[in-house]
Structures are given as C-alpha cells and as structure tokens.
Write a sequence for this structure.
C-alpha cells in the first residue's frame, strides 16, 4: 500500500438552486457519476452525506451557491483517468450549463498520508494557499504536480485542520 494518497477539491458556483430546472441535467447525473467514482480503480474516499453526494455542504458562508467535491485517490494517475477518461469528462464538457465561470482557483490537489480523511477546512486552506502562492508542495494542480515528500509531510501540522464532518 502506498504511503501517500492524492486528495482533491474542486468547487463551483451553481447558476441556480439545485431544485431549479436549469440544474436538472446536473442533478440527474449525480448518482451515476458518484457511483462511477466509487468503483473506479484507485478510488479511496469521497465527501458525501447519507444521500450519497456532497451537495448539502456549503463551504463558504458568504456564498451558498458554491458547491464542492472532495475525494482521495491512490494516485494522481487514477484520479486523472477518472476525471478525463470516463463518463465524468462528459459532465466536464457540459459544466458551463450548470456552473458559472469561476474567477479564482477552483481545483487543488495535495498529498495526504494513506488513511487520512481531509476535512472541508483543510481543503479550503489548500485552495486559498494555491490562490495566494501558486502551485507548491502544499497545494498544486494537474498542470504542476509535486511528488510526495516525506520531510515536507512531517512538517505539516495536521491537528490544525478541522476534522471532516462526514468522515
């Protein structure tokens, strides 16, 4: 088993409330796409409520239209395959139907010790760090991936992050 897994968060601002007909195409595919992730090679964990998705969570108090997706994978390659080479890529191509163009950073990747479940607080801190500092070992993108570094990982104060609400 690998010592580190790759965590990811992506956020987006929906064009309308989830009950609005504008969002029907997105909402109707959630269960299918989440089930695809769950059975994909290299999948470890994803943030979800008892309903099976993360649409209940609102990571930013000032904007209740921002949704998040957060998951952990065994490798960057497994995550990339799911994102870009499965039915998920179809939803990516259609995202402008349901989500506004996002001005800031909306995707972050980072390494976590195998078995660690990241919380929303941790993910938001990773996004904010990426926004402020660009890609680093703390938070990066598919375009600039940093390999896991044991010394860097040891210096992270993991206790400074709030636990996952759905861990």
């Amino acid at each position: 088993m690998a010592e580190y897994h790759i965590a990811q968060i992506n956020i987006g601002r929906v064009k309308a409330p989830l009950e609005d007909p504008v969002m029907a195409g997105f909402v109707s595919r959630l269960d299918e796409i989440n089930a695809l992730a769950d059975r994909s090679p290299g999948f470890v964990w994803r943030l979800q409520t008892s309903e099976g998705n993360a649409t209940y969570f609102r990571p930013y108090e000032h904007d209740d239209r921002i949704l998040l997706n957060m998951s952990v994978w065994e490798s960057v390659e497994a995550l990339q395959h799911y994102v870009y080479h499965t039915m998920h890529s179809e939803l990516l191509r259609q995202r402008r139907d349901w989500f506004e163009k996002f001005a800031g950073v909306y995707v972050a990747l980072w390494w976590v010790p195998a078995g660690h479940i990241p919380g929303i607080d941790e993910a938001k801190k990773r996004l904010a760090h990426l926004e402020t500092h660009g890609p680093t070992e703390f938070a990066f993108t598919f375009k600039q991936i940093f390999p896991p570094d044991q010394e860097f990982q040891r210096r992270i104060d993991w206790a400074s992050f709030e636990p996952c609400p759905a861990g």
